[in-house]
């Protein structure tokens, strides 16, 4: 199925010259002069080779037919990351190179979308936002305003992010899984 290059997102699977690639990063670039382009950083599924391609936003790319199913994360061991289909309780092991830097955001029982091609998991899509606890952060400095200023924080999963000055260690916050950026204080 042909889709415009500008509609591709992280985790999309495309067919380029008969080989399957998973999109690692998609960026739409609109220069002041000239044609807008879409920069795609992709990983070849068969051997893990990473490539970077540029397409005009009007160009079309062949999107591969991939089965998307909801799975729950169970655990990680030497084999890889184990997921379970909540409908029929089938388990799938996903290799470390497929999960990549998203591993930091995986939590027990988390529902994720696995993209499967020929019974092999080729891509993983997490929920857009997750709640995490702040492990450590700098203390509040008297005189800093409550809004507009941020300070560095380390989350329990090892990810560093910037949080507002009123956030203290032990506070649960919501972060974006795409880039680890702070969204809001968790409501639970």
Automatic annotation (TrEMBL):
<dbReference type="Pfam" id="PF08207">
    <property type="entry name" value="EFP_N"/>
</dbReference>
<dbReference type="InterPro" id="IPR001059">
    <property type="entry name" value="Transl_elong_P/YeiP_cen"/>
</dbReference>
<dbReference type="GO" id="GO:0003746">
    <property type="term" value="F:translation elongation factor activity"/>
</dbReference>
<dbReference type="Pfam" id="PF01132">
    <property type="entry name" value="EFP"/>
</dbReference>
<keyword id="KW-0251">Elongation factor</keyword>
<dbReference type="GO" id="GO:0043043">
    <property type="term" value="P:peptide biosynthetic process"/>
</dbReference>
<dbReference type="InterPro" id="IPR015365">
    <property type="entry name" value="Elong-fact-P_C"/>
</dbReference>
<dbReference type="InterPro" id="IPR012340">
    <property type="entry name" value="NA-bd_OB-fold"/>
</dbReference>
<comment type="similarity">
    <text>Belongs to the elongation factor P family.</text>
</comment>
<dbReference type="GO" id="GO:0005829">
    <property type="term" value="C:cytosol"/>
</dbReference>
<comment type="pathway">
    <text>Protein biosynthesis; polypeptide chain elongation.</text>
</comment>
<dbReference type="InterPro" id="IPR014722">
    <property type="entry name" value="Rib_uL2_dom2"/>
</dbReference>
<dbReference type="InterPro" id="IPR013852">
    <property type="entry name" value="Transl_elong_P/YeiP_CS"/>
</dbReference>
<feature type="domain" description="Translation elongation factor P/YeiP central">
    <location>
        <begin position="68"/>
        <end position="122"/>
    </location>
</feature>
<dbReference type="InterPro" id="IPR013185">
    <property type="entry name" value="Transl_elong_KOW-like"/>
</dbReference>
<keyword id="KW-0648">Protein biosynthesis</keyword>
<dbReference type="InterPro" id="IPR020599">
    <property type="entry name" value="Transl_elong_fac_P/YeiP"/>
</dbReference>
<dbReference type="InterPro" id="IPR011768">
    <property type="entry name" value="Transl_elongation_fac_P"/>
</dbReference>
<feature type="domain" description="Elongation factor P C-terminal">
    <location>
        <begin position="130"/>
        <end position="185"/>
    </location>
</feature>
<dbReference type="InterPro" id="IPR008991">
    <property type="entry name" value="Translation_prot_SH3-like_sf"/>
</dbReference>
<protein>
    <recommendedName>
        <fullName>Elongation factor P</fullName>
    </recommendedName>
</protein>
<dbReference type="Pfam" id="PF09285">
    <property type="entry name" value="Elong-fact-P_C"/>
</dbReference>
<keyword id="KW-0963">Cytoplasm</keyword>
<comment type="function">
    <text>Involved in peptide bond synthesis. Stimulates efficient translation and peptide-bond synthesis on native or reconstituted 70S ribosomes in vitro. Probably functions indirectly by altering the affinity of the ribosome for aminoacyl-tRNA, thus increasing their reactivity as acceptors for peptidyl transferase.</text>
</comment>
């Amino acid at each position: 199925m042909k889709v415009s290059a500008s509609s591709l997102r992280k985790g999309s699977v495309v067919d380029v010259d008969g080989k399957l690639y998973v999109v690692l990063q998609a960026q739409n670039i609109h220069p002041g002069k000239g044609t807008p382009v879409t920069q795609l950083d992709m990983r070849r599924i068969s051997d893990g080779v990473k490539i970077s391609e540029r397409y005009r936003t009007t160009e079309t790319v062949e999107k591969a037919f991939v089965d998307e199913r909801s799975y729950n994360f169970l655990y990680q061991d030497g084999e890889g990351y184990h997921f379970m289909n909540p409908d029929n309780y089938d388990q799938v092991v996903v290799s470390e190179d497929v999960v990549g830097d998203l591993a930091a955001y995986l939590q027990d029982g988390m529902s994720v979308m696995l993209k499967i091609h020929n019974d092999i998991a080729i891509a993983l899509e997490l929920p857009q936002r997750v709640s995490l606890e702040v492990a450590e952060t700098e203390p509040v400095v008297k005189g800093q305003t409550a809004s507009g200023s941020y300070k560095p924080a380390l989350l329990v999963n090892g990810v560093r992010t910037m949080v507002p000055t009123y956030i203290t260690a032990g506070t649960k916050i919501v972060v974006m899984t795409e880039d680890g950026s702070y969204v809001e204080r968790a409501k639970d």
